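[Automated response] Your request has been received and processed.

Submitted sequence:
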Amino acid sequence: MEKDDTICLLKECDSGSKMAVTSIDEVLEKIQDSKLKQLLSESKDHHEKLGNEIHNLLIQYQSEEKDPSAMAKSMSWLKTNMKIGMSNSDATVADLITDGCNMGVKSLNKYLNQYKTANQTAKDICNRLIGIEEELCKELRKYL
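Generated structure:
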């Protein structure tokens, strides 16, 4: 049971980190403020590094990685392009990424509760990912 929960939690973290990278990539070129662009670039790097750790652990467990669902990616892309189409501003970008961070934190906490018997390494990675999301959300407030 521990191994199954560990793999499931790692897969959800993998999917979440990939979703974050994709979402940031969608908006990076639309940002005017250099500090906001730097903040999002650094956050993308943090997500990618953690994603690499997750991939290595999944390989150790002889498990496949998990991509975000096509529906989640499509809905994110649609929302991003609609909102930016109506108002192409840094505040809009900050609002979109803040929404994504909040959804990520909510989902990851749900998975922590769902996969209670996951090992401590997987839980620590999940908590680190939550921390990255929460910190980014906090830093984005000044751009809203």
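Summary generated for your ticket: DSSP finds five helices and no strands in the chain. Residues 2-28 form the longest helix (27 residues).
If you did not submit this request, please reply to this message.
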